[in-house]
Amino acid sequence: LPPALMWSLLAPRRVPTVPVKNLTGSSPCRFEPPCPGITGILMSAAGLPVCLTRPPKLVLHPPPVSKSEIQSIPGICHTCPSTPGPPPPCRKTTKKQAKKGKTPEEVLKKYLQKVRHPPDEDCTICMERLSAPSGYKGPQPAVKPDLVGKLVKCGHAFHLHCLVAMYNNGNKDGSLQCPTCKTIYGVKTGTQPPGKMEYHIIPHALPGHSDCKTIRIIYNIPPGVQGPEHPNPGKSFTARGFPRHCYLPDSEKGRKVLKLLLVAWDRRLIFAIGTSSTTGESDTVIWNEIHHKTEFGSNLTGHGYPDINYLDNVLAELAAQGITEESLAQEKD
């Protein structure tokens, strides 16, 4: 190209303002894009359209909130007695131990019916036929390997030998979860390390929930040493990213989710110790299959709002852990 033409293409120039109609179409507004780069200059000089957009912004936290703007949630006012002064509503957990005194066989007996004539199908634990002895090869339970039992609610049948072995390899908390359909028998508890859960209302609305304020949950779990219920007893564990802030709309359904999350917290089901799926770090505190929203004003990572299905999805996840409205009555008892 001649030098003069090349210079005219590369020289900085004023980008004209572009008239753009607003969404309602009532009146035009003015959009002035920022100065484009070399590609935009060349395209503009050639008469080609140039589209300039700014990337959406990640909004993790709400605007600053003063202490006087924070409100407790009516009907959910359990507080931490060890906190000096007027404490925020919160729950503390400790290492709840499983109930002693009952053997695995005694625990499972109340959930089972013996089957005298096993069906012609596989045991989904050992994958051997129910009409044949159990194929489990680990530490042998004190149960005959050819006995078969049927779970009373869901009706799925297994070798008693296999069920006892499965129970011994779990949390041994007095509960049992059907390996076929995930029906829970008894009260399921987890292995969440000790920590604190705070919850209150802040005077800001979430995207998609402009008609109500917001419930903010703050989880705080410190690092520590793994107990006998954890993957590596006696080894230290890390706790990255705490305190973790999570958000719910202060609506009727949002408060229902909070109440059930409190039950999940008391049962040590919200967190666990394992390997992080994002960093690959082992022996660290991780989320435990109950999804939370950690973005306040955006949804760029999928952990924010708007999300019209979130409350229903998290209720289903809680139900999969055995936590439903019936659980609230159980906790009161």
UniProtKB/TrEMBL annotation:
GO terms of biological process kind: Notch signaling pathway; protein ubiquitination
PANTHER family on file: DELTEX-RELATED
GO molecular function: ubiquitin protein ligase activity; zinc ion binding
Protein's UniProt name: E3 ubiquitin-protein ligase
Positions with biased composition (Basic residues): 92-101
Pathway: Protein modification; protein ubiquitination
Pfam families for the chain: DTC (PF18102), zf-C3HC4 (PF00097)
Location of the RING-type domain: 123-182
UniProt keyword Hydrolase, yes or no: no
Chain intervals for the UniProt region annotation (Disordered): 84-103
Keywords: Cytoplasm, Metal-binding, Notch signaling pathway, Repeat, Transferase, Zinc, Zinc-finger
Family annotation (Gene3D superfamilies): 3.30.390.130, Zinc/RING finger domain, C3HC4 (zinc finger)
Family the entry assigns: Belongs to the Deltex family.
UniProt-listed Enzyme Commission number(s): 2.3.2.27
Recorded catalytic activity of this chain's protein: S-ubiquitinyl-[E2 ubiquitin-conjugating enzyme]-L-cysteine + [acceptor protein]-L-lysine = [E2 ubiquitin-conjugating enzyme]-L-cysteine + N(6)-ubiquitinyl-[acceptor protein]-L-lysine
Entry GO CC: cytoplasm
Broad EC category: transferase
Record-linked InterPro entries: Deltex_C, Deltex_C_sf, Deltex_fam, Znf_C3HC4_RING-type, Znf_RING, Znf_RING/FYVE/PHD
Compartments, as annotated in UniProt: Cytoplasm
